[in-house]
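Example (one chain per record):
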Amino acid sequence: MVVENEIGELRAVASGVKGPPFCTKPNYEKPFQERAMDNEIQLISDGDGLAVIGNATDVERFLVSEGLSSKELGLQRLKSVAGTGSAVAQAGSEIATNSGHWVKLTPKSARLVHKYGLRESSKTGLSTGVVRGPKGQIRGFVEFAKVQGPRSLLTNPAILAGAAGIMAQFAMQQTMDEITDYLATIDAKVDDVLRAQKDAVLARMIGVGFVIEEAMTIREKKGRVDEVTWSKVQAAPATIAETQAYALRQLDALAEKMERKTKIDDLATTAKEAESTVREWLAVLARCLQLQDAIAVLELDRVLDASPEELDGHRLGLKAARQDRLEHISRSTERLVARMNAAAGTANAKVLLHPTKSPAVVQASNHVATGVHDFHGRLGIESGRQSSEARRWVDAAAEARDKALETGAKGVDAARSRGNETLNRVTSVKGKLASGIAERARRRRGDEEG
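Predicted structure:
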């Protein structure tokens, strides 16, 4: 049931709500605050996560009803961005009486954005909305796609920007944790890889990591990033960017090397090298992105503290910059996989001539492609991996044997046929010859008797 009041302030969609219809007629006699319903839940989505804000009990019921796991958002940090004068008191009161939770935007939670009809702002890139329902009937929430009224935190631009900034931090920290798990899974010792290089920038990268981790620890203890803490990490992005560029050059060099090789022996050697080194450089790239996300988390805290009015623009800028980095990495890694797959195709075509080297090329190609696919998955990069399947020597040999036998069988049949024809001709000649000899012998005996 769709309900809209006469002045177009509210548009609601009721989903299985029991009891009398909601807002069927506008009530101009009572202010909006008194007409507001129980169990109000405010939703914000930034494309990476979903913030659920409202009374602590209502938020908990809502999350349980939708089967979502979440993390405490920490709305208290937004008091400093509320504004001035009476706005501070009102916003502070709203923040104090509300609880906020952050949910990672998975396919399951993303469906809520569509389910509850959240509307996206072209200015902020955020999708917002309010869910309301009668107390105790979580399944009977009424969905509002447009928010009106002073009770909503979403009507305060500064608080909305602050909430979006905190959500961005949660999304980045989630990715950082996933990268930590990724590095543990592949057992890659990034520092060992960096130490083995002679480039001075790579050596500095290890120190930069220590400094950033220290700043994150201070932030966690203090709840903010002060000027002293920020000054320690300001120069870090340049070193991280140089290290990232170096790692990408290594992957590009491997791709070019694979492209130049045409002989199976050379392809096998280069593919084996790629199999052992690509994982290491992917680990370095993952570490670079992890530290860049950490810097962004610290940066948003610093802007929230020093220039809150610039927070929303800064958040959007960081998001765009991160997407650019991911696209750059995606291009390099996909190019490498394409070269490896081409090498695998060449090896498959020559498997009979090179029964040992060809399968090794294909196996190395598949390992590289699998590693890149896993790397993309951890970082949220769209990946179109297509694995090459090695033709086993036995299968290829069996195929060749079958063809040879088929050809040989045809040859034997032909030979047998030709042999039979020859034998028949010889038998016929022998018969004729024998007949001739016998005839001459009879004639000779007749002459002698006569």
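Caption: The CA atoms of residues 194 and 385 lie 28 Å apart.
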